[in-house]
Each structure stands twice: as C-alpha cells, then as structure tokens.
Amino acid sequence: MEHTEIGVVRTKIDRADPAAVAELSGFGVATIHEAMGRAGLMRPYLRPVYPAARMCGTAVTVLLQPGDNWMLHVAAEQIREGDVVVAACTTESEDGFFGELLATSFRARGCAGLVIDGGVRDVADLEGMDFPVFSRAVNAKGTVKATLGSVNVPVVCGNALVRPGDAVVADADGVVVVPRERAAEVAAASAAREANEEGKRAQFRAGRLGLDLYGMRGPLAELGLRYED
C-alpha cells in the first residue's frame, strides 16, 4: 500500500480549495461528520491537549517511526500557510514526538495545528502559544532522530485515511477528515444541515418534544411501549 512507502518527501501536493476549507472552518466536527454521510472521523482517543484547541486546514502528512521525530523536522519545510500536520506512526507509539520548539518552527511556516497518533509534551507552552494539538497521549518521554519515515504520503491516523491536501477539522468533539475533492460539497451539506438544525432548535425552545418532531410515537407504540399511571 502507498501509505507504507518509506524514505520519500513529496514536495508538490494538491490541496483542497482554500475557499471551501474556510467554509468548513465555520462548522463543528459533528456537523461535518454527519453531513459527509457519517464518515471521516478519527478514533476518539485523539484529544485536544488543551480545552480551547481547535483547527481547520489542509493536511501535510507525516509517517513517523516509533520513538523518532526526525520526519516532523523534515515536514516543516513542506508546510504552507493554513496547513495542518497530520502525523501517523508505523506502529503504536506514545512517546513525546512534539513540543514547544517544533511548534515554534511550524508556526513560523504558517501551520494551523497538529494531529498526531502519538504523544506530545510541553502542553502548558502549547496552550500559552495557542498552538492547537490533538494527540493520542501527553508524554514527557523524548524521541531520537535516527530512522527514515515519509512526508506527504497517504497515512492512516486514528483509523482514518488522510491524503496530502485533504481538509482536516478538529474541535472538542474530535477530528474529521474531508477528502480534498469533496471539500466544497461537504461545506455546502454542512451549511444545509446547520440550517435544518436551527429550525429544530427553535421548536425545542418553544417546548415541542422530539417524540413529536421526529414522529417517534407510532414506532414506539408498534414496539409495545406503553404508558402507565
């Protein structure tokens, strides 16, 4: 499979349309996931390292080796304004691949954040910088720079396939990946879903029950639900 290729840096990638990515940034992860047909979510163990962390951008992907962060330094050169770095590992590793120094380097390149299926450290500094990171673990254990991985190849991060240039959105609910060629379509579907939910929200505020709004009473009765005084 292509995502297992080792020792390559792809310097030219096709990124999702910037206007579509900007539209996606206005929606929550749950909305985008539902609008995309309940697809694209990473595993829920990828969590923000500080509560207000949120990001949206186009993916620069990194394939790491366990306990080795060399390819994150290599990836920094490929970052363009508005990119997010998405880092997977050839096998499970929770070592502290990333910290404040790399965040400083990434930010200077215009990076909008990091998603990593591994560990990070310097969390207080990351929060102070407001550099959003979503990670598998927080771990002070350091890493080496000894083994080749790859940059800008397809990776599987948190059980989700991420290709270079795909749109990635992350907030308190998790991380979702939008295929780059679907970014505009999914943004439009997210807007429609949000408008529909606002109509329902108004009815809930007025006191209407979900039992009636969603037509649940008939199916519940058919299954034998009964009310007793």
UniProtKB/TrEMBL annotation:
Instruction: Give the E.C. number(s).
Output: 4.1.1.112, 4.1.3.17
Among Pfam families, the record links this protein to: RraA-like (PF03737)
**What enzyme class is recorded for this protein?**
lyase
Q: Name one GO molecular function term.
A: 4-hydroxy-4-methyl-2-oxoglutarate aldolase activity
Keyword Lyase present in the record's keywords: the answer is yes
**Annotated keywords:** Lyase
Which cofactor(s) are needed, names only?
a divalent metal cation
Which domain of life does this protein belong to? Answer: Bacteria
Q: Which reaction does it catalyse?
A: oxaloacetate + H(+) = pyruvate + CO2; 4-hydroxy-4-methyl-2-oxoglutarate = 2 pyruvate
Q: Which InterPro entries does its entry note?
A: LigK_PcmE, RraA/RraA-like, RraA/RraA-like_sf
Does the record bear Transcription in its keywords?
A: no
- Function statement: Catalyzes the aldol cleavage of 4-hydroxy-4-methyl-2-oxoglutarate (HMG) into 2 molecules of pyruvate. Also contains a secondary oxaloacetate (OAA) decarboxylase activity due to the common pyruvate enolate transition state formed following C-C bond cleavage in the retro-aldol and decarboxylation reactions.
Q: Which family does it belong to?
A: Belongs to the class II aldolase/RraA-like family.
How would you summarize the oligomeric state and partners of this protein?
Homotrimer.
Q: Which PANTHER family match?
A: 4-HYDROXY-4-METHYL-2-OXOGLUTARATE ALDOLASE 3-RELATED (PTHR33254), BLR3842 PROTEIN (PTHR33254:SF16)
Record protein name field = Putative 4-hydroxy-4-methyl-2-oxoglutarate aldolase
Q: Which species is the source of this protein?
A: Streptomyces omiyaensis
Taxonomy-wise, where does this protein's organism fall, top ranks first? Bacteria, Bacillati, Actinomycetota, Actinomycetes, Kitasatosporales
